[in-house]
Design goal:
eight-stranded parallel β-barrel, CutC-like_dom_sf, two-stranded antiparallel sheet, 256 residues, alpha/beta, cytoplasm, CutC-like, TIM Barrel, 9 helices
Length: 256
């Protein structure tokens, strides 16, 4: 199996991306051998745009930081005001030192919102010409993820994060393989429910990268009154160093 092909036809080494929500998580990912992190807040909600301070602190760890830009939970159909806001957010995170952004938008008919996506890519590359731009798992909610992947090169994307339209990347492996073929120069990154044991199968699809949160529940549970609809009092998640190291070893073994 050859390595994935990047934008412009460049060969892209198989890479490991870890989703993190903290500076400690970014540092743990770096120590475990990750190639980059996707930084977000509210991972339990599917991820939201993190604060400027968190972006700056994560960048200071020295690992390439790609920032999720998503202004709210609850789907991927965004109105003009939300698109305007996310353009502002992606410019701000790039100015804070991020090397890439992770964005997405759909139309109500479950096709890619190409107008919004073009605005995101244009704004990112205007602010930072070498910015990497990833389409997030909004593509897994498209009616036809394979057809959607085929149009990403024309939109200027670097890569796409996908589970192949399935609840987990492992379950969607066959579709991911088809997306790799359709995406052409755009790197396909397999993610959703990924464990180190899944890495050989996922890289066997031809995917250029794997993405996982490598998370474990921290001992910060609290009892009593919930602090919101998403707060069950069970604590938050943190990055598990052992899982990161195991994923790194699995990627390297496949490369070898």
């Amino acid at each position: 199996m050859t390595d994935g092909v990047g934008v412009g036809g460049r060969v892209a080494a198989r890479s490991l991306e870890i989703a993190v929500t903290s500076v400690t998580g970014a540092a743990t990912a770096r120590a475990g051998g990750a190639d980059r992190v996707e930084l977000c807040s509210a991972l339990e909600l599917g991820g939201l745009t993190p604060s400027q301070g968190l972006v700056e602190a994560a960048v200071a760890t020295g690992l390439p930081v790609h920032v999720l830009v998503r202004c709210r939970p609850g789907g991927f159909v965004h109105d003009d005001d939300e698109v305007d806001l996310m353009v502002r957010e992606l410019v701000a995170v790039l100015r804070s030192g991020a090397t890439g952004v992770v964005v997405g938008a759909l139309r109500p008919d479950h096709t890619l919102d190409t107008a919004a996506l073009t605005r995101f890519v244009t704004a990112a590359r205007t602010e930072r010409p070498d910015a990497e731009v990833t389409l997030h798992r909004a593509i897994d909610h498209a009616d036809d993820p394979v057809a959607a992947a085929a149009g990403l090169a024309d939109l200027g994307f670097t890569r796409v994060l996908t589970s192949g339209g399935a609840p987990t990347a492992l379950a969607g492996a066959d579709t991911i393989a088809r997306m790799v073929t359709a995406a052409g120069p755009v790197q396909v990154m397999a993610g959703a429910g990924v464990t180190p044991a899944d890495v050989p199968v996922l890289l066997g699809t031809g995917a250029a990268a794997v993405h996982l949160s490598a998370k474990r529940r921290a001992d910060t549970a609290h009892a009593g009154v919930p602090m919101g609809a998403g707060d069950a009092g069970s604590g938050h998640f943190e990055t598990d160093a052992e899982v990161v190291r195991a994923a790194r070893a699995a990627v390297d073994a496949h490369r070898g």
